[in-house]
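Forum: Protein Structure Q&A
Topic: Joint prediction for protein chains with partners

I've read a bunch of threads here and the consensus seems to be that you should model interacting components together rather than docking separate models afterwards. I'd like to see that in practice. Below is the full input, 138 residues plus whatever partners are listed. Could one of the regulars post the assembled result?
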Amino acid sequence: MPETIFSKILRNEIPSHKVYEDERVFAFLDINPLSRGHLLVIPKEPAVTLDELSDDSAAALGRVLPRLCRAVQRVSGVLAYNVLQNNGSAAHQAVGHVHFHIIPKPGDESGLGIRWPTGKLSPADGSALAEALRAALE
Ligand code: AMP
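Posted by a regular:
Agreed with the consensus. Here's the joint model:
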């Protein structure tokens, strides 16, 4: 597991604006926010990408995320928000420690911008793909 800026934050070696902490989870303000209230939520477990994370850390994150979203809504005064979680540099992950962004979306000028180039799922490919994924879960 490579050393990251987030491991240093977890060890309190560099400062952060802490918002929440429990046994498995830490949340703090993003230093370069896309909008006011942009929060980062990380597991204490040192996993690089979400697929590497233990069920216990995943459950701990899942348990607290909605509560953190509600706090961000309340304090930013903005009801709309995006939860973003990047894995791998090709998917815009810059810090190699699992993190969820909670990003208020006040309007077109700030918050997360999304490109959403959709395709079409054919019935044949849908069947084959779903079957392959079900098998991969076993
Ligand atoms: P990602 O592109 O998903 O890896 O996002 C990494 C995020 O970490 C970016 O939004 C950065 O602004 C944020 N970030 C990097 N260093 C710090 C830091 N020291 N404190 C708070 N946020 C940070």
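The mean pLDDT is 97.
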